[in-house]
Design brief:
Layout lengths: L2 H5 L9 H15 L9 H21 L2 H11 L13 H15 L4 H28 L7 H23 L2
Helix pairs in contact: 2-3, 4-7, 5-7, 6-7
């Protein structure tokens, strides 16, 4: 059972956070281990597993950085620990930004570098924005998901650079 099935919501790159929170609370009221203290070991174990699954699902469903790879995985487009080959042109841009980051001496320079970083992030997001918004499980073509996968790996690079600037 995937996170969306557990929460009984449609698979989406932008799940309704209010619905996610409501479903989470409903699951915890039903399966929290504290409510099974006097139950059999099997029932306690099942409640613990479902409560833990709900915790993990909530974390993923509320974090875009975790949600994108999760949806790609359930669509069998991404495999864990995959070594993905990004286009050389993108890698050159990232290398240039990394070199600039290494030369940063103060907060003003850091802030100045965030501008081209944000521009590059916007540039890679724009082509897939519509794909993410219109995604439908079982209907969206694999080619579209491969574009999302490319975005995901590019975004990881950019996030690492942004972390260095914080």
């Amino acid at each position: 059972m995937n996170h969306f099935e557990l929460f009984d919501i449609p698979v989406s790159f932008f799940p309704d956070t209010a619905v996610v929170s409501k479903k989470y609370l409903m699951l915890q009221k039903k399966f929290h281990p504290d409510f099974f203290a006097n139950s059999s070991e099997a029932e306690q174990a099942e409640a613990l597993a479902l409560s833990s699954a709900a915790n993990k699902a909530l974390r993923v469903l509320k974090d875009q950085a975790l949600l994108i790879p999760y949806i790609l995985e359930i669509n069998e487009v991404l495999v864990p620990d995959e070594k993905y080959q990004l286009p050389p042109s993108f890698l050159m841009e990232v290398m240039d930004l990394n070199e600039q980051v290494m030369e940063v001496e103060d907060d003003t320079q850091k802030a100045a570098l965030l501008v081209p970083l944000k521009q590059l992030e916007d540039e890679i997001f724009e082509p897939i924005k519509g794909l993410l918004e219109s995604y439908q499980m079982g209907i969206t073509q694999k080619e579209a998901l491969l574009q999302v996968k490319d975005y995901y790996f590019k975004k990881k690079y950019l996030d690492r650079i942004a972390d260095q600037l914080r």
